[in-house]
Write the structure tokens for this entry.
Amino acid sequence: MRRHDKTGTTKGERRLLWGYWLLSGYGLRASRAFTWLLAATSVTALLLMGIGLPTHEPAPATTGTLNGSKINLSTIVPDPTLHGGWPQCIT
């Protein structure tokens, strides 16, 4: 009923309630909520396979200098990168 109440709720709250009704039917229709869950999971998995998961772990490189009894070390860790194209990412 709050979705139809134009005097007691703000415009943003009505939009939020309308979106909630659109996606899940207020939880009354399990099939609608399950369908949206399945769609969101599928889109997330496709995005992670296509652009989000690096194929190789970065290998850190440590270099240093020895001055008498002191050792100065510095480690460079490169960012993970994707290798290969779209067909190699989707496996």
